[in-house]
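Record 1 of the preview.
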Amino acid sequence: MFSNYPQKPIDKIISPVQRFIQQEKSGGLLLGISVIIALILANTPLSQIYHKVLAQSFGFRWNNETFFEYSIHHWINDGLMSVFFFVVGLELKREIIGGELSNPKKALLPIVAAIGGMVVPALIYLLFNPHGEPLKGWGIPMATDIAFALGVLYLLGEKIPLVLKVFLTALAIVDDLGAVLVIAFFYTSEINFVYLIIGMAILLMMYLGNKLGVRSIIFYAILGIFGVWTTFLVSGVHATIAAVLVAFTIPANVSIKENVFITKINAYLERFKNIDPAENTPTLTNEQLHVLEKMNEATLAATPPLQRLEHSMHPAVSFIIIPIFAIANAGVSLHVDMNQLLQNNIALGVALGLLLGKVLGVVGFSIIFIKLKIAQVPDGMNFRSLLGLGFVASIGFTMSLFITSLAFTHEEYQTQAKIGIFAASLIGGIIGYIILNKDSEKTADD
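->
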């Protein structure tokens, strides 16, 4: 569409990068590379520097007092990951308002599958770790990594029907919501209710701003970051929960309808066309600039702030924040003492929770609701493809690693959980890919 634009030398560098970012599978690919980098850093002579850098702390000084002093690792998990959860919140709100979760009839099966895929893994983990500190890890195998999971599907390309991608996306989004609720209710430390009430009051201001028609991103950014996020952080409620709640206050409506927008843009284009251009200069006249500003204002008015934010922030989350998180959290030493690894059932509980629990939960709950005729099978899906999706859903990377950092303070327990996550995610992804690939070949032959 824009191929007629004259190409500049810089475009030869930028264009391939833009094409890479626009591909759905690119986020999963970069995440995989980040995991490999983290494993290399943790298992080479660089490991000492790697851990030392992550342990470095910094904060803000005022009158010889330091505030918000945390390690780099902590800032990544509570700061950068708040941005990730903010985008998750935007996606959740969009899906509930006008996406796959807005139609109860269509949304029921992926919702049921997601619930099964959270409950069964947690129960399997608890079966192996019923008491003591290891019990705290029951939330780890509940999560599905949407970037890796969709990356597996996109590796199969056009072989996979769109309905399977939509189903897995809806399942993963509900799964994310479940993980957020688990973090809020079960992985929150002691609560300072004074700061929490202040945060909720600021959140109420943002909600009222939405209802009064405030569409300024700056308004929501200032109150969200310096108000809600900060107060939630010091209150003891995990800061990522603040990010999700803030996302739900962002307006999702438009100021002008599509037909009004089209009329305005056509009128502005006509005006722009009839303006005499500046002679012998590449710059625009003031009148041309004024018309372009009006066109930009109309475009902003016709775009929901929620979607504008989601669209602009998604690349930064997928290609900067998640890879940084993976590098900071996936660095597990592979020189593991097997006796130490098996002295408890954390690794086993996480691995079986993800690999076995996800499949049993996703497939089992779906079949029960289909047999009871409460939910319908989408066109293009069969048992084999559902089974394949169940295995793909066992890729529980980003959110599982995040919950691991909340569940355990003991480094040994964190390492055991991470090994369980890696093993299950790798095996589940490969099995899911094979099943879906075979299913697509069989469907093509039929």
